[in-house]
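Thread: sanity check for a docking pose with zinc ion

Original post by kr_44:
Hi all, I'm comparing my docking run against an independent structure prediction. Below are the sequence and the ligand SMILES. Could someone generate the full complex and paste the structure tokens? I mainly care about where the ligand ends up relative to the chain.
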Amino acid sequence: MKKTITFIAAALICTGISAQTKEQAKENPDLFRAIRDLSRTEIIIPDIDGYKAVKTDLHVHTFFSDGDCSPEYRVKEGWRDGLDAMAITDHIEYRPSDSKMQTYLGVKKKNDKPDLNTSVKLAENAAASYGLLIIPGIEITRNPREVGHFNALFTTDNNKIHDDDPLIAIRNAKAQESVIQFNHPGWARNDANFTEPAKQALAEGLIDGIETFNGEEFYPQHIEDALNNHCYIAGNSDIHATIHDFYLRSGYFRNMTIVFAEECTLPAIKEALLAQRTIAYGCGTLSGSREMLGKLFLASIDIKKIYVNENGDGNILITNKSSFPYLLNGPSTSVNILLPPFSSIKVGFKKNQELKYTISNMFYGVNKNPEISLPLTDSL
Ligand SMILES: [Zn+2]
Ligand SMILES: [Zn+2]
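Reply from moderator J.T.:
Ran it for you. Here is the predicted complex with zinc ion included:
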């Protein structure tokens, strides 16, 4: 029998208290090892309209451009973070580590041009055993003030995209039937408006999606821009360091583009993106169309009357069955109420009162939060 010693320790992150168990090694009775947590976080998001909620991150860097981590680490990290699919999108034009990495891996010889497909291929190889889907991609990376950055997703050959003219580069990517995403519209700029080349690309129908969340940044003006221009709304990590450094220590999941797709396959995800069936998640906030946000919220909760007095007034229990927190502002309160994941709150109601709540951490435009009437049946 293995001897087990259990220590209860105050954990620094998230859960408050955790049990850490150490086990005696089979090969050495003097050696005790801590049991590692190798689990994946399951993020529970309800399906909408019969479409599966596919959790994706459409913007990820590795050390083949300027990220800190290998493609293999990104795969393990993405799987553990609960993603279903992840795009690898290293920069084309900014690759301080590329030469070192490709030389180290023996895939680059002196004076070779870098193979811009390498990080995608390494991620695909690693991801197969995790059941994580890799979306091949690349980031077209130009001066942020004058041009901006664009992700090409579902690329077939990243080596055939570059051109000095950014519009030609975008057209080259489009020729591979790629999906083009305008990234972090206000990063390193004084506003978040479309740059001239981005406007031109949009007018040509080359832009398919816009990031409303990128890392810690939020661009609410682009929610309506995206919807008005038939672009999907994205929320991505654009991770360069580790997800743990950036998100988990702050108590958040990594940013995600939730894609409502028929299934978790590359063609189905692409179809859903082009049909704008997405909701973006960024550091506790959600953005999307008013309609989709409303459907997500209602599918995430259960409502039950728990008490009615002789006047017909009473209390209801709102239960959040999803992994996202919601901030509710409603008739019974003047401040936001937090409805944490997998929790219930009790709120009061008056007889015949419409229970309309503003969901303050959901945005369908600048300062636009959906107002949702809770369906209340008469029975307890
Ligand atoms: Zn960028
Ligand atoms: Zn990036």
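Confidence is low (pLDDT under 50) at residues 1-17. Hope that helps with the comparison, let us know if your pose agrees.
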